[in-house]
Amino acid sequence: MKIRKVGVLGCGLMGSGITQVCAEAGYETVVLEVEQRFLDKGFASIEKNLSRAVEKGKITQEAKAKTWSLIKGTLNIEDLKDCDLIIEAVVEDLKVKNEMFSRLDSLCPEHTILASNTSSLTIMAMAASTKRQDRFCGLHFFNPVPVMKLVEVVRTIATSQQTIDTCFEFCKSIGKEPILAKDNSGFIVNLLLVPYLLDAIRALEQGVASIEDIDKGMVLGCNHPMGPLTLLDFVGLDTTYNIANIMFEEYREKRYAPPPLLKKMVLAGYYGRKSGRGFYDYSGEKPVPVDLGI
Ligand code: 3HC
Hints:
Elements: E1 5-9, H1 13-24, E2 28-32, H2 36-55, H3 61-70, E3 71-74, E4 85-88, H4 94-107, E5 113-116, H5 124-127, E6 136-141, E7 150-155, H6 161-173, E8 177-182, H7 189-205, H8 211-222, H9 228-235, H10 237-251, H11 260-267, E9 280-281, E10 288-289
Parallel strand pairs: 1-2, 1-4, 2-3, 4-5, 5-6, 7-8
Antiparallel strand pairs: 6-7, 9-10
The structure holds 3-hydroxybutanoyl-coenzyme A.
């Protein structure tokens, strides 16, 4: 099946990135939000990325204009009814997601594939809210979407081979590298990444080393582009806390349990870069480690 028009649910960090890469690849892309201010914020981020690419000579002004001509923002779910593929990237709330999927299931034609960018919920828990379980899968992108090459294509017990093939082709067509994952909470990457990030918080809690040295250890010792505490600030501490709770709920294994320090930081509003403070303070020119009293 050929994808011509893509729908994106949510224009936040992930949704705006997905919208950008789809339109850059030449797909007509409609992105849905609940309020205009969220669309404006997502569009500002796309504009920043595209302008930077023009300044660096990576794309032309014409290419930028072409990308924008393919993007449409909407507050009306009915505007997605003629999409061939719809990728959901809204809050990690199963009820919210399923209300949208159930509505789209009745609005969209037979062939439309519905996909979720969830980080930790199981895809089947969403597919079950529709009558098109064979045309339902996970498409898990990574932050920052325009930069990160990987997409996990997640197959449930009910996803058809045709849906998987179409999604693999689609991912390649937007310049991404797809890998196939089973529908287990966390798929491949978060199954391994989340315990690692939580262990870095535990190491800090136990006084193993300072914030800076834990990060430096993994950057210089393992050649990671970011240390785990910097990465936590980048992903968002609130997001990681939610993911860890969902994975702990699923597996009941200690390694997925959010450490008390993470909970306290989320309660304090230390969400990481997005709130200006997490393990580091981002108010100055350079991030500075926060004194957490440990
Ligand atoms: N949006 C778009 N583009 C961005 C960007 C952003 N937020 N941040 C950086 N870039 C681009 C820059 O423009 C630059 O582009 P260029 O090569 O065309 O000039 C390129 O990325 C490199 O940027 P910088 O030189 O400014 O900085 P770095 O070399 O330090 O790279 C990084 C930044 C790509 C974010 C790098 O630090 C990195 O790869 N970090 C790890 C990211 C990671 O692990 N992501 C996965 C998170 S987990 C996840 O998403 C799963 C979820 O379910 C939780």
